[in-house]
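Can anyone check this?
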Amino acid sequence: MMFSSNRVNRRRVAAMTAAATLAFACLGTLLPTLAHADATTDALKATLQMKLSGQASVTDVRKSPINGLYEVTVGKQIFYSDPTGRYLLLGNIRDTNTGDDLTQARVDQLNKIDFASLPLKDAVKVVRGNGQRKIAVFSDPTCPYCHKLEETLQSVNNITVYTFLYPILSERSGVMAKQIWCSKDPGKTWENWMVRRQPLTGDGSCDVTALNDNLKRGQDMNVTGTPTVFLADGNRLPGAVSADDLEKALSSVR
């Protein structure tokens, strides 16, 4: 029995040694490829940065799903380039097998935020039902689509909406944002204007530091239009989403 056990052990050791040898051999084959990929992406990034000097900052270069095509990240935007950096492409790559928009998925990933880091004290707060579900909205008081979103939100229950006033459309937007923010009850004033179109009153005289901070914050977060909705998981929903789409998005938050 002892000799049989020793033979089994020796076989196990031999098998493990062979597996380890194969693994190191595969790694040895893979490492030059990885090093080449790093060298190519590093060189391409340097080339593009030189050619785009003063116009934009290239933050990342990586291989795309298409051979010979590289994904280039400039700020929060995605471009594609050939290996030499001579040609730049702007467009979306779609996987025809799955129907997935691979470019949009990457853009969404780049634009994801840390919801917990938002300074909610700078937002107009409205609670419906138990308020358990949470969203943040960057909204302009003169934006027609923002009015439409607010009307939609009336049918969404058990939600807390933090609206960051983001007056980017006109000077009138800024005046109205101040009137809302400086009112006795900003949440009620906001809904009365956006949903019921009750005229705003007051001269907007109060500390409006939060509004100025919202403008800078929105720019840093690449909020280029209103309304822009952020879910509690950091994902964004641009535009006046429907109640059904918002419910689906809220249900997907973990």
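Reply from J.R.: I decoded it. The chain has two domains: 2-110, 115-252.
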